[in-house]
Write a structure and sequence with these properties.
Blueprint: H1 3-22, H2 26-33, H3 37-44, H4 52-62, H5 66-81
Helix pairs in contact: 1-5, 2-3, 2-4
């Protein structure tokens, strides 16, 4: 698997898990980020990589840190490259 494909899968999974953890639907996030539900769905499935501004809008819509997302996706990518078939994200509440 190429790095870009691994990145897309890890990013999409992170966004989906985070969205569900926060209790948002794809419709909620799409409306608040001003993107289509189809676009968000494709990103979450790893079928489309968002541009930086789209990712910024999603982060704002779900109120999460891009720094945390980058750290978690980087960790996920390393786990996949090292042969792990499972991985987990450890979300931290912003208090």
């Amino acid at each position: 698997m190429e790095d870009q494909e691994i990145y897309g899968k890890c990013l999409g999974l992170w966004l989906k898990i985070k969205r569900e953890e926060l209790g948002f639907t794809q419709a909620d996030v799409s409306a608040n980020a001003d993107i289509s539900e189809k676009t968000l769905s494709m990103i979450e499935r790893g079928e489309r990589s968002p541009g930086s501004f789209t990712l910024f809008k999603i982060a704002n819509a779900m109120n999460f840190s891009l720094d945390q997302l980058n750290q978690d996706v980087y960790t996920c990518m390393n786990e996949v490259k090292n042969g792990s078939r499972t991985f987990s994200f450890r979300f931290r509440n912003k208090d």
